[in-house]
Amino acid sequence: QVQLVESGGGSVQAGGSLRLSCAASGYRYSSAWFRQVPGKEREGVAVILTSGGSTYYADSVKGRFTMSQDKANNTVYLQMNSLKPEDTAMYYCAAMISPRGIWYLLKASDFGVWGQGTQVTVSS
């Protein structure tokens, strides 16, 4: 069973930057970042295919967030720039071990492995 360990969350002022990391213990077909605030559904933020590195972003973060990977170290990153207070959430790394569904739809139910989450707080 692949395990995921996230790091890099924290508090920052609006306009600032943070980089999240997610280290995996094994191969994933794709990796993604989701975020969730209390009382709301988990929202897909970005996804990357391990083979080829194709990425897809939610409209709310497009142009501000960049997802990348270090395949040699089984690690994915989420570089978050121009952060806004509405980006405040618990961020979760997720992995899809084998292909399921349409990879860029960012459906939480398609991802079978989840990290513990890391909090991102953006103050105005």
Explain briefly what this protein structure is.
The protein is an all-beta fold and 124 residues long. The protein has no helices and 11 strands.
- Write down the overall mean pLDDT: 96
Query: What's the β-strand tally?
Result: 11
Tally of separate helices: 0
> Helicity level, as a percent range?
under 10%
Using the CA coordinates, give the radius of gyration: 13 Å
| Major sheet attributes | 7 strands, mixed
Tell me about this structure.
By secondary structure, this protein is mainly beta. 0% of the residues lie in helices and 48% in strands. It contains no helices and eleven strands. The protein has strands at 4-7, 10-13, 18-24, 30-36, 43-49, 55-57, 65-70, 75-80, 89-96, 113-114, 118-123. Strands 2, 4, 5, 6, 9, 10 and 11 form a seven-stranded mixed sheet that branches. A four-stranded antiparallel sheet has the order 1-3-8-7, with no helix packed on it. The radius of gyration is 13 Å and the shape is globular. The mean pLDDT is 96.
